[in-house]
């Protein structure tokens, strides 16, 4: 009898690693040479404070933070089946705690204390919200988390200590090292890859299997003996910590924090990115986040010239996004990656008919 | 002998409806105990009270002499109570093997491992495979559970239940909606469980030939109360049961397969 474990053991180990991770390694290599690649193409230096390469690194950092936010959201939404509308809470908390510590203490000490404090605080926050509210089901849980996040948004918008609507800048309080774009770029790439690997590892582990079981059928998971509340608590706290890390990177990139980090946009965007890319897939959230963010940036800066008049289609971005979202949901009900995963075996079978010497169809 | 499971004066009220009214039931270890009765008699409600899905309005549930009335659902699996459902209750987008492996992993110490690969624990895979073989699903281990035909899902439900190796199995209509030619396979599975001898089973079932064939004891429910309780032969000859529930319709299938008990009369 063939088990899933025995069926893949026919090839040598290095070959299996390459088969399953080849694409991943290729993308890693692309990210690692990205600053120099852009630098070479545009003839600008990848280091320093300005120039095309440095600018594009900033764009890439932004895309990667959005991707990380979507990945962390997918952990609860796509893999555990819990819908939260309060993800921005953790994103904002990361930014403000790091910013606050940097402003109060300054330099390296400020950043280190800020990072530790943010992770500890978001763990506490995740546990607290979970313990108070996880017994609520579905929409009620979503509404509760939305209310908590909005509360923080309104508080920080009104709080003069933290600069009210404007927030506050970090520029002068950050260490010199983090002022270099390329340092922040590689920090982001490393954290991005670690987060990707960590989530993948988690989802193939016994604990990940339980999370999937909860998504599939929580009551069944309970009756076979899992304390599902505890697993959901684990998932939302972990996703919260990952979102906090992302929020800190975002604050370091912009060199400021503001109340908009708590705004519902930073919950809805990862939600849309995950749905468009593919709920409950590893690559889907990344593809959705990078794809849609790239599209937004491109469309916002596009001005169409029709005859005499110029149309700034950037103004229509929200409508365009809406159309894309509806189209994707209709055409790719499982998101781009999810639909591809379902269709790929059929497509391969269909293609193999036309390839000589391959008898995938016979037998 | 102390019963393995005991319900004392169990009562469940939904709004104004008394679904179960002061029902007491004692299930002896190693026996197969069936609960029968017409639709709306309160059989599934009683099952939900015993398994902990519902909290009783009154009364208590005892397992091995320990009160478990307020024990949470997941804890009951850990003390040896497993349950299957009338409405198929599986993990639809996971493969058949993963459905069963997940249940096998539940009572072990590994669920909180999040660094090792789940499929590196070969013992759970092997356990799952043997349970899948027992219910006859070996051909479809890598299929998503949602792709199985209805009968297959019912079998998978049994395999999930068995994977947690419970001492007490609560089966809620294991043959509900199963095509008649496949009912035999499910009866065969229950017979196999019975032959192993170390399990106690409570079955809610409509299929009379199944009930008469496998049960050691039968409780007949009617309008939320117990109408009669006894060995299959006694139940078959009980006039009250016949008139209240079974009527003429079942008179030919009511003959128990075993001859025991006939000498009493």
Could you name the key traits of this structure?
heterodimer; A: mainly alpha; two-stranded antiparallel sheet; 3% strand; disordered N terminus; B: 265 residues; six-stranded mixed beta sheet; four-stranded antiparallel beta sheet; 10 strands; globular; disordered C terminus
Structure description:
The complex is a heterodimer of chains A (363) and B (265). By secondary structure, chain A is mainly alpha-helical. Chain A has a domain at 45-265. Chain A is built from 13 helices and 4 strands. Chain A has helices at residues 4-7, 13-42, 52-80, 87-105, 107-133, 138-158, 181-203, 206-223, 228-254, 265-277, 284-300, 317-331, 335-352; strands spanning 168-169, 256-257, 303-306, 309-312. In chain A, strands 1-2 form a two-stranded antiparallel ribbon. In chain A, strands 3-4 form a two-stranded antiparallel ribbon. In chain A, β3 and β4 form a beta hairpin. In chain A, α4 (87-105) packs parallel to α6 (138-158) and α10 (265-277) crosses α11. Chain A is globular, with a radius of gyration of 22 Å. Residues 1-8 of chain A have low confidence and may be disordered. The longest helix of chain B has 17 residues, at 180-196. In chain B, α3 (96-106) crosses α4, α3 (96-106) packs parallel to α5 and α4 packs across α5 (150-163). Chain B has a domain at 1-79 and 202-265: Rossmann fold, CATH 3.40.50. Chain B has a 6-stranded mixed beta sheet, sandwiched between helices. Chain B has 265 residues and is of the alpha/beta class. Chain B contains 9 helices and 10 strands. In chain B, β1 and β2 (17-27) form a beta hairpin. Residues 257-265 of chain B have low confidence and may be disordered.
């Amino acid at each position: 009898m063939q088990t899933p474990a025995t069926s893949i053991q026919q090839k040598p180990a290095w070959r299996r690693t390459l088969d399953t991770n080849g694409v991943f390694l290729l993308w890693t290599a692309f990210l690692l040479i990205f600053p120099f690649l852009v630098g070479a193409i545009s003839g600008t230096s990848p280091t320093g404070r300005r120039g095309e390469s440095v600018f594009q690194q900033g764009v890439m950092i932004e895309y990667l933070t959005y991707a990380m936010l979507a990945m962390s959201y997918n952990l609860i939404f796509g893999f555990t089946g819990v819908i939260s509308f309060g993800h921005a809470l953790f994103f904002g908390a990361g930014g403000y705690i790091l910013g606050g510590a940097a402003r109060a203490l300054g330099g390296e000490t400020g950043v280190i204390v800020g990072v530790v404090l943010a992770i500890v605080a978001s763990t506490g926050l995740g546990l607290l919200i979970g313990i108070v509210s996880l017994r609520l089901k579905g929409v009620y849980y979503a509404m509760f988390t939305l209310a908590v996040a909005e509360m923080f948004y309104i508080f920080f918008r009104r709080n003069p200590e933290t600069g009210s609507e404007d927030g506050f800048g970090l520029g002068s309080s950050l260490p010199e090292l983090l002022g270099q774009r390329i340092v922040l770029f590689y920090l982001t790439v490393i954290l991005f890859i670690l987060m990707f690997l960590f989530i993948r590892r988690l989802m193939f582990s016994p604990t990940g299997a339980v999370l999937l079981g909860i998504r599939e059928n929580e009551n069944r998971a309970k009756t076979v003996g899992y304390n599902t509340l505890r697993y959901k608590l684990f998932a939302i706290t972990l996703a919260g910590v990952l979102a906090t890390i992302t929020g800190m990177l975002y604050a370091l990139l912009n060199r400021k924090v503001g109340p908009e980090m708590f705004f519902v946009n930073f919950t809805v965007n990862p939600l849309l990115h995950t749905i468009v890319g593919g709920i409950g897939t590893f690559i889907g959230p990344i593809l959705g986040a990078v794809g849609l963010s790239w599209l937004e940036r491109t469309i916002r800066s596009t001005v169409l010239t029709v005859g005499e008049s110029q149309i700034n289609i950037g103004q229509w971005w929200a409508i365009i996004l809406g159309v894309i979202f509806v189209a994707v949901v209709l055409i790719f009900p499982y998101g781009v990656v999810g639909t591809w995963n379902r269709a790929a075996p059929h497509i391969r079978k269909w293609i193999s008919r036309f390839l000589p010497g391959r008898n995938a169809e016979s037998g | 002998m102390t019963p393995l499971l005991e319900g004392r004066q169990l009562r469940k009220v939904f709004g104004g409806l008394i679904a179960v009214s002061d029902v007491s039931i004692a299930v002896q270890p190693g026996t197969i105990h069936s609960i029968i009765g017409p639709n709306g008699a309160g059989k599934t409600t009683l099952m939900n009270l015993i398994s902990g899905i519902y909290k009783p309005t009154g009364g208590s549930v005892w397992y091995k002499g320990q009160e478990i009335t307020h024990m949470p659902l997941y804890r009951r699996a850990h003390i040896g109570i497993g349950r299957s459902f009338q409405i198929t209750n599986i993990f639809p987008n996971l493969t058949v093997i993963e459905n069963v492996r997940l249940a096998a992993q539940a009572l072990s110490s590994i669920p909180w491992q999040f660094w090792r690969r789940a499929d590196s624990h070969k013992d759970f895979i092997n356990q799952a495979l043997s349970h899948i073989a027992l219910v006859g699903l070996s051909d479809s281990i890598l299929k998503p559970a949602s792709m199985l035909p209805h009968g297959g899902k019912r079998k998978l439900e049994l395999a999930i239940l068995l994977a947690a190796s419970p001492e007490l199995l609560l089966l809620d209509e294991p043959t509900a909606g199963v095509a008649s030619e496949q009912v035999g396979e499910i009866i065969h599975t229950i017979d196999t469980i019975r032959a192993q001898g170390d399990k106690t089973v409570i079955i809610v079932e409509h299929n009379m030939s199944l009930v008469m064939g496998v049960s050691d004891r039968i409780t007949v429910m009617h309008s939320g109360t117990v109408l009669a309780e006894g060995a299959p032969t006694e139940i078959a000859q009980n006039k009250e049961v016949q008139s209240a529930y079974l009527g003429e319709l079942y008179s030919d299938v009511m003959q128990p397969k075993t001859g025991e008990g006939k000498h009493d009369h």
